[in-house]
Design goal:
Helices cover 43% and strands 16% of the residues. It has 15 helices and 13 strands. Bound molecules: ligand GMT.
Amino acid sequence: MAWNIGIVGYPTYGGSGVVATELSKGLAARGHNVHFMSYARPQRLDAFNTKIQYHEVTVNAYPLFEFPPYDLALASHMVNLIEYQNLDLLHVHYAIPHTTSAFLAKQILGERGAHVPIITTLHGTDITIVGSDPSYLPVVNFSINQSDGVTAVSDYLRQETYSRFDIHREIEVIPNFVDLNRFRRTQKQHFRRAIGHDDEMIISHVSNFRKVKRVEDVVITFAKIRQAGVRAKLLMLGDGPERIPLEALCRELHVCDDTRFLGKQENVEEILSVSDLFLMPSASETFGLAALEAMSCGVPVVSSDAGGLPEIVRNGETGFACPIGDTDAMAARSIEILTNADLRANMAAAARAKAEEYDQDRVIAQYEAYYATVMARMGH
Ligand code: GMT
């Protein structure tokens, strides 16, 4: 049966937006009508699709508003769409402020006798950093409890949510997922040659260069790898607030010539396809979607052991998970992988096999089944 589904997410270069967008496409492919709401079109919602409509939420300026109230504009938008597009359910990604706007919309519609199920997917910093900040915590706590269904992207995040908040709802774990066809190893030797010499290893990192990603540890680890005499190039994909200090660090550590800042890339899988190693030294990471995409391309990962990362980066199997900030350990583990072709090949195969557990189709079916359960519980 086809449903009319409202999806709300952030459009930015970041995990929750990618999940919301890819889920929308997957649901559309299964015959559902999707209405995507955000303040800008997400990067991956690029192709025309008759089953996906994009609704931009605009916030009008007014001289009194130093901080224009996006959450209120979004709630109004939700009310309109639920009413006029007959949404069967509303699925919001990232609790702040989406879950609170959804609660408001639900209250407004409740007065008119309409009851649309609201599902919240918790992604990460909405719980571990921003959501736990006292300036947001009571509102986030209340709003999550008001959702009709709540999912978290890892066991770790589920536990963190229960320990940081007073949640009296069952939280279902539905993990991040990957398109195994798109993210697979392809032969891009010409591309590899354009980056470095044949005997040079290629190390990559993808993120939004926020503090939580500890991008400086990527460069420090890379410098230590180079100091050990391993010939390698570092590809930094993405962009964000830490980029300028990071470029300065590259100069300080004399690794500029071997480091390429590639910015935000559309076809990340092409770069991952020529990579020998992926680094993810985050201070906090509830799942680590970028690591999963690398693994799907057969790239071993050396990461920190933050949050949910050890759920996918199996130590000694698909890569190594080292203590947060321990760049000596990360460099030593990286060197092991880069200098041992057999270990590298075994880990590459294990990484792909692990990624296959997170097959997009299987996980989207899990979301569909969860929608059905929540709707049935509400008598829809
Ligand atoms: O930190 C980011 O890159 C974005 C962030 C977000 O909240 O959008 O990502 C979180 O959600 C992703 C998708 O569920 C997870 O894969 C990331 O691990 C998580 N990031 C953090 O916990 C820092």
